[in-house]
Write a structure and sequence with these properties.
alpha+beta, globular
């Protein structure tokens, strides 16, 4: 049975924006004494200006973007009776939302149109879980797409795991992101109900405004050895190469709890040994800069490996996995949780892994870390979900048409 049709649609929106520039922004200050002349102030550094990112292309635009300043991930469960035809209607609705919101226009029917602004670095990435596949829905998934098998160190909670549909909204500020999430969730209501939502933040900008890798809550530079978007290595790592899902990818989202209290009790040497990189700049313990590869064969004066056998960078290194790689992003999170002595703060990392073949790339890497990774002592996965990210779409087309049409 198809889900009920919704009445509204049309892709037109409206927006109006006005702004006033302050005198101080022009490099002038007003003198307190009217008899004193205005004195030029020191130049005020310009605030970073965001981009308005096109949603169109062979791939969904959010995948290859650097880790965003703010993200919110949403999973939904399909309502009974939602079939291929109903999913097509939902994807058309979401396509209109994605096109409008990314451009800084309000989504059709938006009750708060002034919250949609251009230059927000906004991307909206849509994927589907195993429950949305099958003959009467999206059909078979991409090669190797599967749920992540249980790991020994996992302590997964249902409230952070699974889902039939997935939307990842990313951007410069929490207000714009939260507003976009409300719109896509509202449009999905006749077809799916909210399962979970998870928020995170990341600082990918250095003090001088240049891009940087960013740090997790352990203080580690996190993401140093990622494939670089636009390269052949990135394309081979991330994009599904052919078939119905060509141009799509797969995503594993892991919610990782970090034990900051015990981590803070370690010496700096102990912390660096567990990772295999220096905390100051993310460079390998074997020397060089952040972007230099780790020398897994390096030995110290006593003949011991410079990078410990259980160091995170060794266990995750492509050399141990036949050259297999992933493209990863992080987002830090904190939340208040109740406790016997009163509320406490729980912190962690939302870890996103993109790869063309989940079973062949992510699963062997995760098993290697599960077996012997020093960081297992201070990190615990409490949520896990796998999604097939839809191929991109061109202007005039809609998300998922090649899979549902």
């Amino acid at each position: 049975m198809a889900a009920p049709r919704v009445s509204r649609r049309g892709l037109l929106g409206y927006a109006g924006t006005t702004g006033l520039g302050a005198l101080t922004g022009a490099g002038l200050v007003v003198a307190a004494d009217p008899d004193e002349p205005a004195v030029p102030s020191a130049p005020t550094p310009a605030a970073p200006v965001g981009a308005t990112l096109s949603p169109w292309g062979p791939h969904q635009s959010g995948v290859a973007q650097a880790a965003p300043a703010v993200l919110e991930a949403v999973a939904l469960d399909l309502r009974p009776g939602v079939d291929r035809e109903a999913l097509g209607r939902l994807m058309r609705l979401w396509t209109g939302d994605v096109e409008a919101l990314a451009a800084g226009r309000p989504a059709p029917g938006d009750p708060a149109p002034w919250l949609s602004v251009p230059g927000a670095d906004l991307t909206i990435t849509v994927g589907v879980g195993p429950g949305a596949l099958g003959a009467d829905r999206f059909g078979a998934g991409p090669d190797g797409f599967t749920d992540v098998p249980p790991m020994v160190h996992d302590r997964l909670e249902e409230r952070w795991s699974g889902g039939d549909l997935f939307v990842l909204v990313a951007g410069r500020d929490a207000t714009t992101v939260a507003h976009a999430v409300r719109r896509v969730v509202a449009d999905a209501r006749p077809f799916a109900r909210l399962r979970w939502t998870q928020q995170g933040a990341w600082n990918g900008t250095a003090p001088d405004g240049s891009p940087q890798t960013g740090r997790n809550l352990f203080g580690q530079v996190d993401g140093s050895a990622n494939p670089r978007p636009g390269t052949e290595l990135f394309d081979r790592t991330v994009w599904v190469p052919g078939g119905r899902w060509a141009g799509g990818t797969t995503l594993v989202l892991r919610r990782i709890r970090m034990d900051l209290d015990t981590w803070d009790g370690l010496t700096r040497e102990e912390q660096e040994r567990s990772v295999g990189r220096r905390l100051a700049d993310g460079s390998p313990l074997t020397g060089g800069g952040e972007s230099d590869d780790v020398d897994l064969a390096a030995r110290d004066e006593q003949g011991r490996p410079v990078v410990a056998l259980d160091a995170h960078v060794r266990r995750s290194h492509p050399a141990l996995h036949g050259g297999r790689r992933i493209f990863r992003k992080g987002a830090s999170w904190t939340r208040e949780v109740p406790g016997p002595g009163g509320p406490r703060i729980e912190s962690g990392l939302l870890f996103s892994s993109y790869q063309a073949d989940l079973a062949d790339q992510f699963v062997p890497l995760q098993r290697s870390l599960d077996e012997l990774d020093s960081l297992n002592e201070w990190t615990t996965a409490i949520g896990s979900a796998a999604f097939a990210v839809l191929p991109g779409f061109e202007q005039g087309d809609w998300l998922g048409r090649s899979l549902l049409g």
